[in-house]
Amino acid sequence: MLRPVVVGVDDSAESLAAAEWAAQEACLRDLPLRLVHAWNWSPHPASDVPADAAAVGAAQRVRARAMLDEAETRARAACPRVRMTADPLEGPASAALLRAAEQAEVMVLGSRGLAAFTGVVVGSVAQSVAAASPVPLVLVRAGEPRWACARVHFEGEVTSKGKPERPCADVVLGLDLADPCDEVVEFALTAARARGVRLRVLSAWRSPALYTLGPGELALAEKPRREEEWRGFQDAVLRSWRGKFPEVEVVGTVVEGRIVTPLLGAAEDACLLVVGRHAHAGHRLGQHNGPVTHAVMHHARCPVAIVPYP
């Protein structure tokens, strides 16, 4: 049985963008799509919900179904041939979505990112799910068309070789050379292959502090030599993957210092940014995301895939 692409929806613009992205991802992977909306009875319901407890539950179910119906319409428009189901989930949103993720191939949520002036941030639900999801989680923002290059696969705009007529943005992978896990690399390459685009791989290195070097080691601290060593290390990591995905053009880059700024710069022209997250045992709620994951969740302008690895 195929595991679906699961997308959590609510009444936000980001959620509807996530439903569109998830529908196209399901089509690209030839997987079913499952729309879910998590709701829970609240002692302080929305102003348009009746105060009576029984009526509150009924009204919330109606609202949940309306949200799912709207998301289904948007998803169907994004990919008419997608196989789709829609289910309301009862319970606290984070816990309900994580239970749904256990049966998913990929989990998708809307994300507001971080507005520099308003201070609007990725919601607590998205942060909790991102920190504990057992499967790759993709966060999608509203109003960013870069990811839409996948639409050419559904509009007939392809050449005889099956490639899009118009260029699409790259998939970008932030690769930690200290822990180059297979799950993250494979997810990024699979995404690039499905879209018929390049994979750009960015890795960072740092010069060792001079006081940590022993006699005769100062020459190794020279920037050109150190950079060349790290570039060779990255190429060695990617060499076997190039053989497994010969149809994907892989372009590697190493940068000195912190990876966040160049990664966000590359994401400006990307259709998807992929980073890894160490999957701590138990997938407990309340776990924290690492500094790189935290930064790209809040600031990247393209969809962000957070891939757990052992």
From TrEMBL:
This is Universal stress protein. It comes from Streptomyces kunmingensis. Belongs to the universal stress protein A family. It comes from the Bacteria. InterPro entries: Rossmann-like_a/b/a_fold (IPR014729), Universal_stress_UspA (IPR006015), UspA (IPR006016). Residues 1-141, 171-308 form the UspA domain.
